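[job 4471] stage=fold_predict status=RUNNING
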Amino acid sequence: MASLALSILASSLIFIIFKLYTRFKVNTLFAIVTNYYVASCVGLLRYQGETSITEVPGKPWFFGTFLLGILFIVVFNLMAKASQKVGVAVTSVATKMSFVIPVIFGLLLYNEQLSIVKVIGILLALAAVYFASLKESSIKFKKSALLLPALVFLGSGIIDASLKYIQEIYIAEEEYPIFSATVFASAACIGFLITLFKISDLRSSYNLNTLIGGLTLGVVNYFSIFFLLKALQNETLNSSSVFTINNVAIVMFTTLLGILLFEEKISAKNWGGIALAITSIILVAFG
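[job 4471] inference complete, writing structure tokens
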């Protein structure tokens, strides 16, 4: 449970860091690319196994990390576009509701069992994510633009399900650091290609704040994945429970942090979502 709690904490801090980017005028795109390099380096520094870097391409999980790296970049860009087109609230809901994909994946592939209590908890979790993320928005958009949050939903869910599959089938626990480092290195390579097309912007807008923002995000981002992988090894909770608790708790925690740190105003619906989140976590964890 400690690993799950640390994963929730790290993932919640990511949202706080993004919030601070605007205040400190950090270039988000370049900070994101920097973050992948930093996260990869943290993984390499923490790795104490016997496998050398030259042997990594021969690992059974290597091809999977390459695909995950591409997904990380693609989904991030989809999230950015969706936020601009249909609003942050809709995008946030789509991202966090994606936990239903790894839940279904676990039920079908690993024959995981869910009690009636846990099923009720998962349904309440969906409602909790919706109501806790609900914000008043004046942004008008065409119905066709809903394709973007739909793709965010699908992409985020595939990432979580893929992490579970690779962790279950291919990775030994001592390889978590090198696996995480390789995933982030793949994303960093894709990010490098993107920066080549924006080299003029890089020279003019990459400043100290962007560097610090990328460094901070990279460390936190690495541990969010590392502790999630460890949480998936929990003998008490199956992957369906882990993903449900993880995503719902992140929504609840970030909402509360927004109130405490940024004096954000939340509605009665948001408070109702937090109450549902707490209820759903209890049902899923102990059901």
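[job 4471] summary: The CA atoms of residues 170 and 198 lie 37 Å apart.
[job 4471] exit 0
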